[in-house]
Specification:
Helix content: 10-25%
CATH superfamily: YggU-like
Order of helices and strands: EEEHEE
CATH class: Alpha Beta
Strand order of the largest sheet: 2-3-1-5-4
Number of helices: 1
Structural class: alpha+beta
Shape: globular
Oligomer: single chain
Number of domains: 1
Strand content: 35-45%
């Protein structure tokens, strides 16, 4: 399933509305730390391994498309 994800920094939440996810990230967007936290949070929320969450586009953007395999 593909989701449009919007990242908000310095917050801690996950809001899911159909195919859209708004997620709060505490990590700074440096050297992929925020992307790693994003993957871990989504994996934990959907109760799947991190390897089943993949960022498709938007590696350096607040708006991303993420593929989640259940």
């Amino acid at each position: 399933m593909r989701y449009n994800v919007e990242v908000q920094f310095r917050k801690d939440h996950i809001i899911i509305d159909q195919d859209n996810i708004t997620i709060g990230i505490r990590s700074q967007p440096e050297k992929g730390k925020a992307n790693l936290e994003l993957i871990k949070k989504l994996a934990k929320h959907f109760d799947i391994p991190s390897s089943q969450v993949r960022i498709v586009t938007g590696f350096k953007s607040k708006k991303k498309i993420v593929d989640i395999q259940k």
